[in-house]
Specification:
The chain is α+β, with helices and mostly antiparallel strands and 289 residues long. It has helices at residues 9-23, 28-58, 60-70, 73-81, 89-105, 136-150, 171-176; strands at residues 110-117, 120-126, 156-160, 183-188, 196-203, 209-217, 220-225, 239-241, 246-248, 255-257, 273-274, 276-279, 282-286. Helix 2 packs across helix 3 (60-70) and helix 5 packs antiparallel against helix 6. The termini are far apart.
Length: 289
């Protein structure tokens, strides 16, 4: 009997993404029925998986097998989807912020997670819009409540200042210039379209080159190496969803947080983010670490 090839992670993830996207095209009544069926099936699957994981975890002989299974990408994705295993604090916190970010942005605010350390999430906030009733204090409280309630390992939130502390820069460093330190010029910031992606092949003065993808969301720029974390396929035709703040690979449907590069389809995967800065109106990307 000929063995049937099992579908891979990208095929399974694409089927899920396609099915979820198709729900939006249904009539409200049909969509409600489909979503209830999905929720009921997920509840059954989760109950069964929880029992399996608990039994294997409590059995000394089976525990090692369980740990090996969790390292399998498909099993890891399945258990993560059912929240049976939790992502690392940074990944979990970024997911929570993806959910709360639209509310912040609707009032002219935004948040960036800097790091998670000893149970404290360090974030930077951008202020509320002029004349808006949602003050910076309200923004801070909203972010703190979301992170503390949504991430069990986070017990406190500290807001870092937006402006970095003054730093003494050696005169020699100023003379060298950015391009000789692995930086390459992308072009004028005004030429980078907002709400879209920009793809460039950049070259430093020393001859180093890199294919770079720059994403602009609400005039916030993020730079990545232009390759999907799955099979290193180019993201030239990636789909940028401004409403959800996501970037989707056109090849296998892997979905990423557009501002952090975190893969939402396969926990643990990540786009390679590159340092980016704007000097005198020009965008520079560091293509070498």
């Amino acid at each position: 009997m000929t063995a049937v090839a099992e579908p891979g992670l990208e095929e399974l993830a694409k089927r899920v993404d396609d099915a979820v996207a198709a729900l939006a095209d249904l009539e409200p009544k049909a969509r409600a029925v489909a979503e209830e069926l999905k929720a009921a099936l997920e509840a059954v699957h989760r109950a069964g998986l929880v029992t399996i994981v608990r039994r294997m975890r409590d059995d000394e002989a089976a525990r090692a097998v369980l740990f090996e299974l969790v390292d399998d990408p498909v099993v890891h994705l399945l258990l993560s989807l059912h929240e049976i295993i939790r992502p690392d604090p940074v990944t979990h916190a970024n997911r929570v912020l993806v959910a709360v970010r639209p509310q912040l942005q609707s009032h002219g605010g935004d948040v960036t997670l800097v790091r998670v350390e000893d149970g404290t999430a360090y974030v930077r906030l951008e202020g509320a819009c002029n004349g808006c009733s949602m003050s910076s204090v309200t923004l801070r409280n909203l972010v703190q409540e979301a992170l503390v309630d949504g991430v069990p390992s986070i017990t406190a939130v500290e807001v870092l200042p937006n402006e970095p502390s003054p730093t003494l820069i050696p005169l020699e460093a100023l003379r060298i210039g950015p391009a000789r330190d692995g930086w390459a010029r992308l072009g004028p910031a005004a030429d980078v379209p907002d709400g879209d992606i920009t793809v460039r092949n950049l070259t430093t003065d020393s001859g180093e080159t890199a294919d770079v993808l720059v994403v602009s969301v609400q005039h916030r720029l993020s730079a990545y190496r232009n390759e999907c974390a799955h099979e290193a396929m180019p993201l030239d035709n990636a789909i940028l969803d401004l409403d959800n703040g996501t970037l989707t690979c056109p090849w296998h449907g892997f979905c990423y947080d557009a501002t952090s590069g975190e893969c939402l389809s396969a926990p643990g995967a990540q786009l390679e983010q590159l340092p980016l800065r704007v000097d005198d109106g020009d965008v520079w990307v560091r293509v070498r670490g």
